[in-house]
Amino acid sequence: MMFKDVIGHQRIIQQLISNAGNHRVSHAQLFLGSEGSGTLALALSFARYLQCRDKGPGDACGKCPSCLKFDRLEHPDLHFFFPTAPNQLHKKDISSKLFLPQWRELLNHSPYFTYLQWLEKIGVENKQAIINAEDCNNIIRTLGLKSYEGPYKIIVVYMVEKIFYSAAPKVLKVLEEPPSNTLFLMVSENKDMVLNTILSRTQVLRLPPPSEEDIRQALTEKQGLPAHRAREIAFVTAGNYAEALRLTTESGEQIADLEAFREWMRYCYSRDADRILKWVEQIARTGRERQKSFFQYGLKIFRLCLLHNYQAHELLRLEKDEEDFVTKFSPFINHTNLLQIVEAFNIAIQHLERNANPKILFADLSFQLMALMRPQEQ
Ligand SMILES: [Zn+2]
Fold first, then answer.
1. Domain 251-377, what fold?
2. I need a surface site. Which of 165, 179, 238, 247 has the fewest CB within 10 A?
3. pTM exceeds 0.85, yes or no
4. How far apart are CA 322 and CA 265, in angstroms?
């Protein structure tokens, strides 16, 4: 990953390069941006640039020994920490270190991946992953090592908002007074979830989502997509390049979401309790993170229906199948029931986060939806 591989963000890249040139590199930086905005891509290319032995005015060289080690993500002064949870293979004593092979594999494929894709990669999509106490200890241990090769020792923390609360103070201490030539490059998708004590010790770089044009261009030039398909995906994904990549490779999941949602709504509307319960059984078997993202998908569809009803067609960013469904489904959604539906979904998401039983959750929500979609017949 080099600056030239980052989608958009030219102004921020120039700023980072100029900071490096003026020796004004802040020792703790937080790359903050929504999913698919390229926070990890930017942090990595900056790390490479700083360590490169033959950097040009606008990017790392890509050829020096340091860059070659970055290509393999095996630079001895580059350390990764990220959320993990016990999986089938590793049931205890886990830490980021244990999952480095999977991490490198995903990252080598592309640093534009979603958090859910990471959890799926290590088989923990139904669990709450954290940057755990052992990771925090390892961060401190890493700081004790002297840097091997590069001018800097660089610690990349992915999704710093997932740091285990009671282990965080150790890390805070070193963030306050880090050893010289140590750099923390942290990545987050949600500022509200990052501990204030971390925020106050870091320089925050806010990344806006890449523009539709940037994404369209990247899809044509880097992914070799035909122009019409690149345009369609750039439009639909609205600044989320991770999602754009996912649609180029495995639009399967999106289609699966739509299929499942369409079925669910049909059964709720026709008040088919048997089928609803069978459907609930099915969705309850999928992982918790998957269920959460399914709820988010449902919320998106409801909002799109309302936009459709207001004839705000130019605001709709839909793929063909979704558009068909929204057109058919939107008559059942109005301003009043939408508010109640959105509230019920948000409550369900909260309950899911608190480990509620998904079967009960989906069944309960189904019966609420039945009433909300056809109130006149009650
Ligand atoms: Zn280089």
1. Zinc Finger, Delta Prime; domain 3 (1.20.272)
2. 165
3. no
4. 14
Is CATH 3.40.50.2300 what the domain over 3-208 is classified as, yes or no? no
**CA of 185 relative to ligand 1 center, distance in Å:** 19
> Domain extents for the chain?
3-208, 211-250, 251-377
Helix axes 133-144, 168-176, angle to 10 degrees: 30
| pLDDT over 50 at 378, yes or no | no
Nearest partner of 114 among 243, 294, 212, judged by Cα: 243
Closest CA to 218 of 86, 355, 37, 374: 37
On whether the CB atoms of residues 4 and 17 are closer than 8 A, the answer is no
Cα-to-centroid distance, 75 and ligand 1 (Å): 12
* Residue appearing with tokens 């949602």: 261
The dihedral sign for the CA sequence 253, 289, 282, 373: negative
Kindly list the protein residues that place their beta carbon closer than 5 angstroms to ligand 1, a single-atom ion.
Answer: 52, 60-61, 64, 67
CA distance 181 to 186: 16
